[in-house]
TrEMBL record:
Chain ranges of the NAD-dependent epimerase/dehydratase domain: 4-255
Cross-referenced Pfam families: Epimerase
Listed NCBIfam families: PRK11908.1
Superkingdom of the source species: Bacteria
Record lineage: Bacteria, Pseudomonadati, Pseudomonadota, Betaproteobacteria, Burkholderiales
Protein name stated in the entry: Bifunctional UDP-4-keto-pentose/UDP-xylose synthase
Amino acid sequence: MKKVLILGVNGFIGHHLSKRILETTDWHVYGMDMNTDRITELLEDDNYKSRMHFFEGDITINKEWVEYHVKKCDVILPLVAIATPSTYVKQPLRVFELDFEANLPIVRSAAKYGKHLVFPSTSEVYGMCHDEEFDPENSELICGPINKPRWIYSNAKQLMDRVIWGYGMEGLNFTLFRPFNWIGAGLDSIHTPKEGSSRVVTQFFGHIVRGENISLVDGGAQKRAFTYIDDGIDALIRIIANKNGIASGKIYNIGNPTNNYSIRDLAGMMLTLAAEYPEYAEGAKHVKIVETTSGAYYGAGYQDVQNRVPKITNTCEELGWAPTTTMADSLRNIFDAYRSQVAQAKALMD
């Protein structure tokens, strides 16, 4: 019976992971977050109250609570991070302060108390790598010039990976996982109208619901390998279980190479699918696809990656895992999940 500490338990990965743990294992979840909107049903479920332990707090303030629970729990997942490109460009110091500085004491506590640290790296660490598939053991990590603050997220995460690896050389039990564009319900709020404030699938979805135009940055030719959240959580559960210590000291890409589509393709797929739903069809009729520049959309410090495909050989072989959800099914699941929220999203236009 493991005790799993999830910092950022109300976030996209945090709430999906908590739900899966409570539904399929006898593990206890100890969670901290500043909000509870995504985990309300878990907190109110009588079946889970004995195993779902929640504290409303902030990792930058409630440091004693965090250290106490690192000491108390078996597996530590520090999932608190800023992961929206517009913030990298507009507030790079905020990204560094939270994603690196605020997480460093948690990493040190995990080392101090001999815990299994499962840390979210990112596909962004590979930057503008030229490889057809990004290999966690061999690919070069290539970032742009200093005057492109977009790379501070990649650099902060890469530096943390290197620090954790260094602690591993001194005995820390760690696993680094790199999510490749995980998508699903609860990724960001569809009620946020401001462009660049959420990630691409949620952004497009909100525009479709409200009948707003979809902006393709620099033509939308850049590709991403999209991964459905349930597939990602499958891999994470195996890492936390860490059967026979297989995941210790490893770096895993968690992504779906077969779901590699351009952003333009994504917009087209979502509009086609929206037409099949009575709740979304009317809004979708008003949507036009327009083009914009990255400078106009994100700000002058943006630079993009044209292709980002994960090599998942070691993830599949060592964890006995494989992604199974197609792009079509991933999008349909998202459209199904938000059917009851259309009115609230539309109200943003009033």
